[in-house]
Amino acid sequence: MKPKSVRTFDPVGVLFGVVVPLAVAALGPVLAHLWHSRLPEQVATHFSGTDPDDFSNPISSTWTLAIVIVLVGGGCSAVASLARVLLIMRRTMLIIGLTVVGVIGVLQIATLVRELDLASGQSVTIPGWAIAAGSVVGFAAGLFGASRLRDHREHVLATSPPHSDLPRCGAELPLVVRVGASRLAGITVVAVALAAAALTCYLSGSLWPIFLFAPLTILTLSLLRFTVHIDSDGLYVSSLGMAAFDYDIDEITGASVRTVHPAKDFGGWGLRVKGRGNYAVATETGPAAFVTFANGDRLTIGTAEADTIAGTLNTLTARTRTALD
Length: 325
Prior knowledge:
- The chain is α+β, with helices and mostly antiparallel strands.
- It is 47% helix and 21% strand.
- The strands form three sheets. The protein has a five-stranded mixed β-sheet.
- α1 runs antiparallel to α2 and α2 packs antiparallel against α3.
- The longest helix has 29 residues.
- The protein starts with 10 loop residues before the first helix and ends with a helix.
C-alpha cells in the first residue's frame, strides 16, 4: 500500500516545469549582454517567411522573448509542479511547455549567433534547423521530465467490499487490455500531420517542419491510446509507457458497466475530465467500465472488455476486504 502524501509541489515538477524554463529564458539576455560589442545595434525580431521584416535593440529583443518563454512555455510546464493535479495532465503540460521552450530558446540563440559581427539591419535568414532542433530537444526534455514525475495525491482507503450486485469475474492476472483509437484513426492522425508538415515544408522551402510536427503527432496519439493493467496491487492505466492513472486495490469501492457516448457524455474523445475527480478514457462508443474510488474519484474506461475489467476489479477488491476482515 502506498503511503499517504501531503505534498503540494512535486520537486521534479518544479525543476523541469519552473527552473528549466526560467534558465532558458535567462540565457538569451545573458548572451546578448556578453555579445553586446559584437551584435549590431538592430537585430532581426520578426520574419516574413524566412526573411526579416522588423528589427529592434538586441537587449530589448531578448528580454521580450524571455517573457514569452516564461509566460507561454513556462506557463504550460509549471502545471507539472503541482503535486495534486492529475498526473497525466501534469505530464502532458510539461511535454507541451518544454517543447515550446525548446523551440523559442534554440531559435533565439541561433539567430543571435547569425547576427554576430553583422552590420545593423543586414539581411539574415531565420535558421529553420534551429526550430527543428529546438522542438526535438524540448520534446525529449519534456518526455524525460514527465517520466520522472510521481503521483502525490492523497490515498483514501475503502472500508467495505463492492456491492454484491456488481459483476464478478475470475480473469487470469495480470489482466492487460489495450484501449483507444482504432488503427484507422491512428493512421488518419498521422496522415493529417504528414500533410500539414508537407505543406509547411513546401511553403518554407525547408525540411525542418517535419521535426516540429513529429513530437506533436506522437503526443496526440499518446492521448488516444492507452493500456489498462490490473493485478492484485490495483489498477494502472498507462500512455507512452507512463502512468495516466494509478490506483491501489485498497482504494477501489466498486466497478460497474455502462454505455458511453464520448461526444455526448464527455465532450469528445481521448482522455477527458468532466468535473472534479470525474475522468474518462473515452475512445469509443459502447460499453465502458465505470470505477469508483474512496476519495470520490470516478474513472470511465471505454472498451469492449468492460465486463471483464469491472468483474475482475470487484473480485479482487472483495477478496482483499474479506482477507482483511
